[in-house]
Amino acid sequence: MNILITGGSGFIGSHLTKHYLKNGHSVTVIDNFITGNKNNLKEIINNKSLRLIEVDLVDYNYKDLSSFDIVFDLASPASPAVFKKLSFEIFKVNSIGLINLLDFFVKSKSKTFVFASTSEVYGDPKVNPQPETYYGNVHTTGPRSSYDEGKRFAEAVIAAYISKHNIDARIARIFNTYGPYMNKEDGRFISNFINQAINNQPLTIYGDGSQTRSSCYISDMVEALAALGEKNNLKGEIINIGNPDERKVVDVANLTKQMTGSNSQISFLPIEEDDPKKRCPDITKAKKLLGWEPKIKLEEGLKTTINYFKNL
Ligand code: UDP
């Protein structure tokens, strides 16, 4: 197959790129490296089946590209640590960038479009776990609004293209994901805790750590995204992808300390406004439509991720 992956040098994108190259497909990656990292593609950079285009989706003209079997759109900064700093980049790539890409998709008669949306569309949810039918509780002007509303707008754009151009587009609502090749500086809780623990620095918990997250290991995420791109009869489907093993942030901090054998203290810092108090995917739909469920337990995935960061 001929695959296009925007954001293909990011954490999830680089794993997806390697997955398709390993399975003998041709992959075109478009990335401007705003939060992605060329180093993530180091081991495949000379692969003849990889084409890397360094450009911003917002002003790319797609002139030298033809039809793709699957287009995965993963291009967007995604860490809460940059939601304010990169707010306009987030708005633009999820609006202008997405519309440019969809226009190319229609014109080139490409087959399947998979959009990386997010659990952030549920905001600070009043329903737990969150099914796809939940409309969310988002603060439209809060500190997370660039990403939350950017992705909600993007979902609306995709719905309009499906209705107007009859394209086969599918939406993945991606929940917290972790594993090797996470950006060390990204500010995510799992990467922060591991790096703080192995460097004997205090583990920073925002708030009292009673907020929950449900973390999916990267290999499970890649499997689900590939299934979403490849299965038949999923046009217009919106599917949560994540691991429903819900844990308190403080428990993940203590588990990381224990697994790294670290003597680090825990330091409680102020929590940012609108930080979701609970987050857990209802994956009934993913199980049914993708025949998928996560296999890697948190303890197992943390072990691999800790080793990765230790060897950096
Ligand atoms: N968090 C934390 N310490 C950190 C980084 C994050 O306590 O060093 C908390 C954060 O406030 C949130 C949760 O961990 O409640 C997950 O944060 P992350 O940035 O990984 O992603 P989010 O799920 O908020 O998008």
TrEMBL record:
| Pfam families referenced in this protein's UniProt entry, alphabetically | Epimerase
* Biological processes annotated in GO: D-xylose metabolic process; UDP-D-xylose biosynthetic process
Q: Where would you find this protein in the cell?
A: Golgi apparatus membrane; Golgi apparatus, Golgi stack membrane
Alphabetical UniProt keywords: Decarboxylase, Glycoprotein, Golgi apparatus, Lyase, Membrane, NAD, Signal-anchor, Transmembrane, Transmembrane helix
Per the record, membrane topology reads: Single-pass type II membrane protein
Which InterPro entries does the annotation name? Epimerase_deHydtase, NAD(P)-bd_dom_sf, UXS-like
Instruction: Name the principal localization, coarsely classed.
Output: Golgi
Query: What GO molecular-function term can you cite, just one?
Result: NAD+ binding
Task: Identify the PANTHER family for this entry.
Answer: UDP-GLUCURONIC ACID DECARBOXYLASE 1, UDP-GLUCURONIC ACID DECARBOXYLASE-RELATED
Q: What is this protein called?
A: UDP-glucuronic acid decarboxylase 1
Instruction: Write down the species.
Output: Candidatus Roizmanbacteria bacterium GW2011_GWC2_37_13
Source organism phylogeny: Bacteria, Candidatus Roizmaniibacteriota
